[in-house]
Amino acid sequence: MKIRHARKISTIKQYHDKSIITIGNFDGVHLGHQKIIKQLKLESIKRNLSMILLVFEPQPKEYLSKFAPKRITILRDKIKYFKHLGITQVICINFNKYFAKLHAEYFIKEFLVRILNTKCIVIGENFRFGYKAQGDIDLLKLQGKKLGFDVIIVATSKIYHQRISSTKIRKALKKNDLQYAENMLGHTYCISGKVIHGNAIGRTIGIPTINISLKNKKLAVNGVYAVELNGINKNVVHGVANIGIRPTFSGIKQNIEVHLLNIDGNFYSKHVEIIIKKKIREENQFASLSKLKKQILADIKNVNNYFINKNI
């Protein structure tokens, strides 16, 4: 898979091959997104066009507002899903001041048509783009007639007669309805990242943890979870994950710390995949380290029991 990064339109070389594209945040890469990608692939073969997926990073609302929706999926995981779904080219648009001020018509003419040589666009029915989200499907269709590209609208996917959306998945995760969230996602809910150095507080109380880099992203999940990890070694490893701000230590930024069950070692710089299995409790603030340790030991016992019962 080819991945290109665009800070400005001028940073992407002009495409000579005619292309078919889709654009979006693809947060969660849920069943609705998968339907769009499937249509993109079918039309690419049918029309003999080069397939390109455009994704925003950060997501526009994260750049424009302090109160942006929390992430379901970080970019690394999106790329993994895109590759699994058969996408061959990704352009990651670094959503910045330049792109935030770009008017929709200019984005179409200069980027989609002049640079990417777009002949067809496949999008969801609620797609909006450009400065202050002024661009919509009607504008795309109008410009398509003028500039020579087709617009294919993919109808919203539904489950249990309900529209699938990233917003609904976030709500399900917040309510601890993991099963419903995963039904809408069409895959297990997981988070991946690099193991980094932490402050070693867990090791000082005899309960070592690994710390996972979130690169300042705020996740849609928060609390203490039973998890499975891939990437520690050749086998699936069980663990207890705390996803939160660590209020006992006056934390502000969200972190992921995982205590690995029945395994210890140096795992720094490994890229691991954390699969959320079950929420154990909410994140709490404790008056002392001893009370925190007591609770963590209880969490470890609960998680051990969960995996034992799960495998019976």
How would you sum up this structure, described in words?
One of its GO terms (molecular function) is riboflavin kinase activity. Pfam families: FAD_syn, Flavokinase. Belongs to the ribF family. It is an enzyme of class 2 (transferase). It comes from Wigglesworthia glossinidia endosymbiont of Glossina morsitans morsitans (Yale colony). By secondary structure, this protein is of the alpha/beta class. The protein folds into 2 domains: 2-156, HUPs (Rossmann fold, 3-Layer(aba) Sandwich), CATH 3.40.50; 188-310, Elongation Factor Tu (Ef-tu), domain 3 (Beta Barrel). 33% of the residues lie in helices and 26% in strands. The protein has 10 helices and 14 strands. The protein has helices at 31-47, 60-64, 75-84, 97-100, 104-115, 137-147, 166-174, 178-185, 201-204, 289-310; strands spanning 2-6, 19-24, 50-56, 89-93, 118-124, 150-154, 158-159, 162-163, 190-196, 210-212, 223-230, 237-244, 255-260, 271-281. The strands form 3 sheets. It has a 6-stranded parallel β-sheet, sandwiched between helices. Strand 5, helix 6 and strand 6 (150-154) form a beta-alpha-beta unit. The model has no long low-confidence stretch (mean pLDDT 95).
Structural topology:
Layout: E1 2-6, E2 19-24, H1 31-47, E3 50-56, H2 60-64, H3 75-84, E4 89-93, H4 97-100, H5 104-115, E5 118-124, H6 137-147, E6 150-154, E7 158-159, E8 162-163, H7 166-174, H8 178-185, E9 190-196, H9 201-204, E10 210-212, E11 223-230, E12 237-244, E13 255-260, E14 271-281, H10 289-310
Parallel strand pairs: 1-4, 2-3, 2-5, 3-4, 5-6
Antiparallel strand pairs: 7-8, 9-10, 9-14, 10-13, 11-12, 11-14, 12-13
Helix pairs in contact: 5-6, 7-8
